[in-house]
Design goal:
The complex is a heterotrimer of chains A (about 450), B (about 130) and C (about 500). Chain A has about 450 residues and is α/β, with parallel strands linked by helices. In chain A, about 35% of the residues lie in helices and about 15% in strands. Chain A has 13 helices and 15 strands. Chain A starts with 7 loop residues before the first helix and ends in an 8-residue tail after the last helix. Chain B has about 130 residues and is of the alpha+beta class. Chain B has 5 helices and 9 strands, in the order βββαβββββααβαα. In chain B, the strands form 2 sheets. Chain B has a 6-stranded antiparallel beta sheet with strand order 1-2-3-9-8-5. In chain B, strands 4-6-7 form a 3-stranded antiparallel beta sheet. The relative contact order of chain B is 0.24. By secondary structure, chain C is α/β, with parallel strands linked by helices. Chain C has 3 domains: about 60 residues, no CATH class; about 260 residues, Type I PLP-dependent aspartate aminotransferase-like (Major domain) (Aspartate Aminotransferase, domain 2, 3-Layer(aba) Sandwich), CATH 3.40.640.10; about 130 residues, Aspartate Aminotransferase, domain 1, CATH 3.90.1150. Helices cover about 35% and strands about 10% of the residues of chain C. The longest helix of chain C has 20 residues. The chains are: A alpha/beta (about 450), B alpha+beta (about 130), C alpha/beta (about 500). At the A-C interface, helix 1, helix 2, helix 3, helix 4 and helix 5 of A face helix 1, helix 2, helix 3, helix 4 and helix 5 of C.
Chain lengths: ~450, ~130, ~500
């Protein structure tokens, strides 16, 4: 087998040294009744060419050749070729967690740079080396707020990504946290009056996403002020990192949970991505996840090492800030490389292109009779439109033209039936937008239930 | 090495009573076992301590140790220098490395603790066990 | 050096600074295609309250500088591609490159989790096939591929146990954990809302069944066990332990971190395990990437299936669908469908071997036993039970010279190896935990053995050399104390920490 570097004679030599006749003898500590008497019933073995063929066949059964207008927490953005050039290097790809600092300076310095970039993006003072994704980062941020305030109530915006809310609910149940949802107004922003009324001395945190699941940018400064007045913490989740190229960062927030997928990470059917938690320096000891710190060696040379490890599971065990061990290091590296390539100018320009294309798409869609923008608040690259008929039916027609249309919101928000979430990024061309608009117009012009020819 | 006017616990804390105030710290044996101290987690002033219960932690790079209250009472002051200079616990564990001052401790609680001689015998025994 | 030479440095590649230190206004590494729609003024559109001027601290560098910077950084790392990682319970095996290739295919890397399920059958088939393979390998009945890592798998498993016991009237209060367990186990128990109770191993470092019988009361929900244990030995009475637990209504959770000793030889489902997780970044070769991503699928027996996290992959009308309508489910444990890209790699690994995966297991166990045999005369074996895929020594003999396991590990770096796992498991003071995996050739094993024998000699003859190691790395031992006392966790403009060469 090509992954096993032993010849039959070498195996024999080693067995002789050990003093057994066959490898079978080395398993005698397993009770006989549990030792398999048959080979496993598994597909394969496949040669490399067959493996490639297998996955190419699977790829052909997916959505190749379709134009997509989906966002909703996973975004199609530019991915520079150099990202893979770097993360495919064996020294990054096949290296272990940098516990042995002297031989992991490459990884550690890259993490330090990632931490710095996350701070610059979010306007916070410290950031960690990555969490599993935006949904778990948001959950961990809430658990952190609970530890910091010692309070049990959490107010969560209904416009926080439904899957993020679902994950938070799963974790919250077991640690005694009470989650209350605060709705949104016609603008799509959180109902600040309802929020103000709900905050009390038992509130640990207020949690919003910005831009939220409906694409609307939240008034973070105002929300933070309301939270702080009650000595609660403001937690802001960010699923679309590119928005930070032009949208004011949530500097007033106490904890930011960022999903970095937008920077150099392919959609890959849901993962792997990279979450990060960024917060104020004074909270750093309650922050979960690894941290790389700058230090010096015995000769005074600058170097980096993992630090504040006493927060973590391998030392603190049951009193740890989190159980996280393996994180998303290589994905964080991809994001770091992409952000360095984009730089200050590139990210700004990319964000402005997203803004412009979304406005163009929105304007064109609103020209179609019966189609209206559903929420009035400020948006970045996603927005909600209301159609005169079921989004699902319209999408079925769009599929025939190889277009994956707006995400139907009805299943997530019963009050938003016939509403769809449209996402447009810098990778969406004008022709594609025009084609979507023309197709939607044509589909809506047809009588309902009529012939589909 | 171990001041005669202090009293010592089995968990390697020391306590010194002056007037009505008890000052608490960890012993030289404890700081040596921990290694370089990097951080100390302490209660706020006003917190009520119960003798024998943990009231904070002392951290080195690779380990976390609980600190147990040698006496009951209320915390009146914490050593603010430790935030910026936790290494004081290593360099001067019985003096500048003090942790908290406590009021309301019953003198009877203190006299049940080990004196310097008893404590030194206790740690000598521990070292013998460790190298056995 | 003359006055005019200001910036000469030796070994430029070894002295690479931070990317921010190379930044200069106007440089760029990416050029976007021109905007094909009318531009908008962000401030006019969103209002000044919502707009920033640009991300100040993002570096401005060119493409070549990014390539040089990160390529130089990469040369400071050790990696599997360079040599062995004898890290116990980490299973640092070869990461097959074809796995990287297939994960990046157009039609695999490009898929969006919300696209119509009829356009995702390829992705769903990958998930279904991997699930089927993992069930066959472990002998379990149902699985979720969602958890992002072993720790998340552990949490999911405990939540499943809680839901199952709650459905029978009492979720119970405690989980038993052996003193040899990995730190994620107790940390996870607390997050799951249970209390930890430690169970001491017996004199052979194994599960103490008599003690277990005493401890399993109606308050105990489960025992979390790693098998083989973190000593690298198979728990001979595991089936008995399962029986004790089951007879009192409790469950057996197995941490599958050491599955590399079992695949193709025995199956946890056969010896009484109710729920377990696997670490795909260990046994199933997905790359560690400097710390992740990984994946921690959870496999269960039938009685726990109704509680699996949503969505669950099922078949409906001849098509695969992700079903979120599961009334008894514990809920979602992460967004979307899991670390899909990692799952693709794990499937590619499994398909490459087929049933031949048993050979990998055998080779892993042969390597560990070979190393044990060739080192047992110079390093102390704390327990004489048979080793499987990893062997645990202690530094007892070297301690006499003032040399401990940490020192030996650092000296191993000078020989060109990554250290083994030091100071774990906690039940062996001064532990050296060595797991070579099946990816090491006899030659590589011999090199490792010779290095370790040489260090044992040095410990006796020149202990100072070992105690001050490593000597050959780009940086010496780093000041971890200073890093923890006064943490510097990010670069700042005009930072005062410029290091001299």
């Amino acid at each position: 087998m090509r992954y096993l570097p032993k010849s039959p004679s070498e195996r024999q030599e080693m067995l002789d040294v050990i003093g057994v006749r066959s490898a079978e003898e080395l398993f005698r500590s397993i009770p006989e009744e549990f030792r398999l008497k048959r080979p496993l019933n598994l597909p394969g073995p496949l040669s490399e060419a067959e493996l490639i063929r297998y996955f190419q066949d699977r790829a052909a059964e997916n959505s190749r050749g379709y134009t997509s207008f989906l966002g909703a927490g996973v975004y199609n953005h530019l991915r520079s070729v150099v990202v893979d050039t770097i993360i495919q290097r064996g020294e990054f790809l096949t290296s272990y967690t940098p516990y042995q600092a002297e031989i992991s300076q490459g990884t550690l310095q890259a993490i330090f740079e990632f931490q710095t970039l996350m701070c610059e993006l979010t306007g916070q003072e410290v950031a960690n080396a990555s969490m599993w994704d935006g949904s778990t980062a948001t959950t961990e941020a809430v658990l952190m707020a609970d530890r910091l305030t010692d309070r049990q109530r959490v107010l969560v915006a209904r416009s926080l990504h439904p899957e993020y809310r679902a994950v938070l609910a799963t974790y919250a149940k077991n640690v005694g946290l009470e989650i209350h949802e605060i709705g949104f107004t016609a603008s799509g922003q959180i109902d600040t009056a309802a929020l103000a009324a709900a905050i009390d001395a038992q509130t640990a945190a207020v949690v919003v996403q910005s831009p939220n699941f409906l694409g609307v940018i939240e008034p973070v400064a105002q929300i933070a002020e309301l939270a702080h007045a009650a000595e609660a913490l403001a937690v802001v989740a960010i699923a679309e990192g590119v928005s930070l190229g032009v949208v004011r960062p949530p500097a007033e927030a106490d904890i930011v949970a960022l999903e970095a997928q937008s920077f150099g990470l392919a959609p890959s059917y849901g993962g792997p991505y990279a979450g990060a938690i960024a917060t104020r320096e004074k909270f750093v000891r309650q922050m979960p996840g690894r941290l790389a710190g700058q230090t010096t060696d015995s000769q005074g040379r600058r170097g980096f090492c993992l630090t504040l490890a006493t927060r973590e599971q391998h030392i603190r065990r049951e009193r740890a800030t989190s159980n996280i061990c393996t994180n998303q290091a290589l994905c964080a590296l991809a994001a770091t490389v992409q952000l360095c390539l984009l730089g200050k100018q590139g990210l700004r320009e990319m964000a402005e292109q997203n803004l412009a294309k979304a406005q163009y798409a929105l304007a064109k869609l609103e020209e179609i009779p019966g189609v209206r923008r559903a929420l009035s608040g400020p948006v970045f690259n996603e927005f909600v439109i209301r159609l005169p008929r079921s989004v699902r039916l319209v999408n079925a027609e769009l599929l025939r033209e190889k277009i994956i249309g707006p995400l139907p919101l009805g299943p997530f928000y019963p009050d938003l039936t016939k509403c769809g979430l449209v996402c447009v990024t810098e990778t969406t061309s004008r022709e594609e937008i025009d084609r979507l608009v023309a197709s939607v117009q044509r589909i809506l012009a047809k009588p309902l239930g009529g012939s589909l020819i | 090495m171990y001041p005669n006017e202090y009293r010592y616990t089995k968990e390697h804390e020391w306590v010194r009573l002056e007037g009505g105030t008890a000052t608490v710290g960890i012993t030289d044996y404890a700081q040596h076992a921990l290694g370089d101290v990097v951080y100390v987690e302490m209660p706020r002033a006003g917190t009520k301590l119960a003798a024998g219960k943990s009231f904070g932690t002392v951290e080195s790079v690779k380990a976390v140790s609980e600190i147990y209250a040698p006496v009951s009472g209320e915390v009146t002051e914490i050593n603010a220098s430790l935030a910026g200079a936790p290494e004081l616990i290593n360099t001067d564990p019985h003096g500048q490395g003090w942790l908290v001052k406590v009021k309301g401790a019953a003198p009877s609680e203190i006299t049940t603790l080990m004196d310097a001689a008893a404590y030194q015998a206790y740690i000598a025994e521990k070292e013998k066990e460790a190298s056995a | 050096m003359s006055d005019r030479i200001k910036a000469a440095r030796r070994n430029v590649s070894r002295n690479e600074g931070l990317i921010f230190e190379k930044s200069a206004p106007g440089k760029r590494g990416v050029e976007l295609p021109p905007l094909d729609v009318p531009a908008v003024d962000a401030r006019k559109l969103l209002g000044t309250d919502y707009v920033r001027d640009g991300v100040e601290g993002l570096p401005e560098v060119s493409e070549i500088e990014v390539i040089r910077h990160f390529t130089r950084l990469s040369t400071w790392n050790y990696a599997i591609d360079l040599g062995m990682y004898p890290l116990g319970s980490c299973t640092m095996k070869y990461n097959p490159r074809v796995n990287e290739f297939v994960a990046r295919l157009d039609g695999i890397a490009t898929e969006h989790p919300y696209q119509p399920q009829e356009l995702s059958q390829g992705c769903l088939k990958i998930l279904a096939t991997l699930r089927q393979c993992l069930l066959e390998i472990t002998g379990m009945d149902a699985a979720t591929l969602q958890p992002a890592a072993g720790a998340q798998g552990e949490l999911t498993g405990l939540l499943l146990i809680r839901a199952y016991l709650a459905s029978r009237g009492n979720p119970r209060k405690k989980v038993l954990i052996p003193d040899s367990a990995h730190g994620t186990n107790p940390a996870t128990v607390v997050i799951a809302g249970y209390d930890v109770e430690n169970i001491r191993s017996d004199a052979r470092g194994q599960l103490d069944i008599a003690r277990l019988k005493e401890l399993v009361t109606d308050d105990v929900a489960a025992l979390m066990v790693t098998n083989p244990s973190t000593l690298g030995t198979f728990e001979p009475r595991i089936a008995e332990a399962a029986e004790v637990l089951h007879s009192r209504g409790a469950l057996l959770y197995m941490d599958g971190a050491n599955m590399n000793a079992l695949a193709g030889v025995t199956r946890p489902g056969d010896f009484g395990v109710d729920v377990m997780h696997l670490n795909l970044h260990k046994t199933f070769s997905t790359p560690h990437g400097g710390g992740g991503p990984g994946a921690g699928p959870v496999l269960v027996k039938k009685h726990l299936e109704p509680f699996l996290p949503i969505p669950v992959l099922t078949e409906r009308d001849g098509r695969l669908v992700l079903d979120a309508h599961r009334p008894q489910s514990i809920g979602r444990v992460r967004a979307f469908a899991g670390n899909f890209g990692v799952l693709v790699r794990a499937l590619a690994y499994t398909l490459a071997y087929g049933a031949g995966i048993r050979q990998a297991t055998e080779d892993a166990v042969v390597n560990a036993n070979y190393i044990r045999k060739r080192l047992e005369d110079v390093y102390e074996l704390p327990y004489d039970s048979p080793s499987m895929h990893e062997v645990v020594f202690s530094d007892a003999r070297q301690k006499k010279f003032g040399v401990n396991t940490m020192d030996i590990a650092k000296r191993l770096i000078d020989y060109g190896f990554h250290p083994y796992t030091t100071a774990f498991p906690l039940i062996v003071p001064g532990a050296l935990m060595i797991e070579p995996t099946e990816s090491e050739s006899k030659e590589e094993c011999d090199l490792f053995v010779d290095a370790m024998r040489s260090i044992a000699e040095e410990a006796a003859m020149e202990p100072e050399l070992v105690k001050t190691a490593p000597h050959s790395t780009r940086v010496g031992r780093l000041d971890e104390v200073g890093a923890a006392r006064r943490p510097v966790l990010r670069w700042k403009a005009k930072s005062s920490a410029e290091a001299a060469d």
